[in-house]
Recover the amino acids of this structure.
């Protein structure tokens, strides 16, 4: 039996997704699905807040609210990176998580996912991974989505150095966001 609440939630989620899709009309579909439509992500929470305040909000109003994100230009690229190319906050998180060897939540599924990503990364030709999503602010990258993949791939550059910022650079495929509004969402 399907509850009325479940139906309403599904319709609401579909409506929210359609509104966001029309708002981010210039964004690559992959970035939209993997980043914007992330279940617990920033955009879902913001949209909920906006619709709570104005249930009749349309894509023009959302485009205004998310203006800085809408203006970002996305390109699929293959980059050669190591941890030193990421923000200090990203580096800190990667190091704290030991590039996937430490699971902060002790969740077995995360450990299995990291191990799977590592095995997959070793099998793939460099730069042919499923894309990750990041912002570029003049040579410094901020990782947004694809943490497990990124850490697994970067760990392939481990050359024995204790400091991961000195590991060998590794090719990684990414959707990279650039543009003048990056500084506003950074």
């Amino acid at each position: 039996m399907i509850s009325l609440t479940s139906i309403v939630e599904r319709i609401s989620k579909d409506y929210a997704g359609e509104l966001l899709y029309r708002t981010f009309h210039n964004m690559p579909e992959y970035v939209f699905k993997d980043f914007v439509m992330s279940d617990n992500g920033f955009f879902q929470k913001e949209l909920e807040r906006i619709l709570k305040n104005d249930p009749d909000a349309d894509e023009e109003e959302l485009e205004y609210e998310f203006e800085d994100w809408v203006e970002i230009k996305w390109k699929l690229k293959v980059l050669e990176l190591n941890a030193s190319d990421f923000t200090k906050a990203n580096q800190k998180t990667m190091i704290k998580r030991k590039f996937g060897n430490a699971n902060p939540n002790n969740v077995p599924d995360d450990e299995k996912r990291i191990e799977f990503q590592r095995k997959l990364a070793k099998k793939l030709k460099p730069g042919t991974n499923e894309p990750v999503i990041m912002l570029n602010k003049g040579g410094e990258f901020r990782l947004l989505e694809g943490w497990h993949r990124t850490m697994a791939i970067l760990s392939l550059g481990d050359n024995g150095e204790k400091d991961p910022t000195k590991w060998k650079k590794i090719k990684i495929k990414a959707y990279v966001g650039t543009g003048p509004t990056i500084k506003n969402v950074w």
About this structure: The chain is about 50% helix and 15% strand. The domain at 73-185 is CATH 3.90.1530 (Conserved hypothetical protein from pyrococcus furiosus pfu- 392566-001, ParB domain). The chain has two domains: 4-69, 73-185.
